[in-house]
Write a structure and sequence with these properties.
Length: 66
């Protein structure tokens, strides 16, 4: 069984990677670090919550498990 704490830790580490990538892409496209930082934080906060909920939802599905 996978605990909620493990799902949360997994979500946090993945979001840190995503924040860095979003910032780099946003900065490369605009040259504006403030815009890139805002884009990164807002976008990844939303994605963090959605990923956690998605992960917990899939744990309830038995399809594909042995």
């Amino acid at each position: 069984m996978i605990t909620k704490r493990r799902s949360l830790a997994k979500s946090i580490t993945w979001r840190l990677i995503a924040i860095a990538v979003t910032f780099i892409v946003g900065f490369a496209m605009t040259g504006n670090w403030q815009f890139a930082a805002s884009l990164s934080l807002i976008s990844n906060l939303v994605n963090f919550v959605l990923y956690y909920l998605h992960e917990r939802f899939w744990l309830k599905i038995r399809w594909g498990r042995k």
